Every structure is written in structure tokens, then in C-alpha cells.
Amino acid sequence: MLPDDFLASLDEAGYEDRWRRIIADGSSRVFVAADGLDIVGFASGGRERAGEDGYSGELYAIYVLREFQGRGHGRGLVRAVVAGLRELELPDMIVWVLRDNGGARSFYERLGGVYVRTQPITIGSALLQEVSYGWRSLDDVNY
Fold first, then answer.
1. Residue 20 falls in which region: left (phi positive, over 0), alpha (psi -120 to 50) or beta
2. Helices (H), the chain
3. Please, what's the b/e burial string for 67-78 (b: 16 or more CB within 10 A of its CB; e: otherwise)?
4. d(CA 135, CA 114)
């Protein structure tokens, strides 16, 4: 779904440094899902970053390797992020997802996420659309 020029620009060392800073900062929460000794997914969350009215918490990112999807790892990661948001005393949550990512959108809808709005986003050379889903209370997340 992401443009080739953007994917080609990704730098492993740069992302490693970025994740080290994020984890050390302590203002967000980062979790991994494991299958045996293998890390098969991750999620992160913290304070809402864009000033979206009515939401103080945000699920920043979640990813589970395709071959490990459908085994509960995603729900477990969301549960962990929700617990992390509670630690940060954030009572609600929003997440942004590419409009064309039907699988992720269905996942958030099954978790009880309510459509908030759509907005354009530029990634690399492409103008895409992203959709937000929100939970006005973390108690509304259906695992």
C-alpha cells in the first residue's frame, strides 16, 4: 500500500536509533508479541499527537507478521497498549489507518472502534487517505 520510493528510503539503522530514543524517553509505551522465542509483532501508544479533539490517547502503531495474524497477537497488543495508556492516565484512544487497509479497518471495527474522520496524508510521493477510529473510553475496547 505504501509507495516504492518511501519503502526504499527506510533505513534500519535510523529506525533502530528512533526506537531506542522512544523507549528511553518513557512518554509512550512499546510492546512486542512473541511466538516462542520469535518476535512476531509490536505496538506502541501514548499521548495523542495531532490535537484531535476529544482524544487524549493514541495507538500509534501495531503490526503483526502476516503468518501470525489471526492468533490473538493483535488483540493482545491492543490490550497491552490500553494498559499502557491507563498507566499514563489517558482515558480514551484514537488510531489512524490507511483507508485502503481493509483488514486493519475490520480489526479496529471488531474492537469497537467508531469511525471519526478521514484525512489526506502524503507518504513518499503518494497522496493517500487515512481513516481514524476512536474509543471515547478505554472501557469500550472489545477484545
1. alpha
2. 4-9, 12-25, 73-87, 102-110
3. ebeeeebbbbbb
4. 7
Contact 69, 33 (CB under 8 A): no
C-alpha cell at 44: 506502541
> Where do we find the cell 495507538?
59
User: What are the boundaries of each domain within the chain?
Assistant: 4-140
* CATH entry 3.10.50.40 includes domain 4-140: no
Name the grid cell of 124: 513518499
- Work out the pLDDT band at 15, boundaries 50, 70, 90: confident
C-alpha cell belonging to residue 3: 509507495
105 is written with which cell numbers?
479497518
Is pTM beyond 0.85? Reply is yes
Residue 64 to residue 72: CA distance in whole angstroms: 10
Helix (H) or strand (E) holding 62: strand 57-64
Distance CA 9, CA 51 (A): 28
CB 85 within 8 A of CB 93: yes
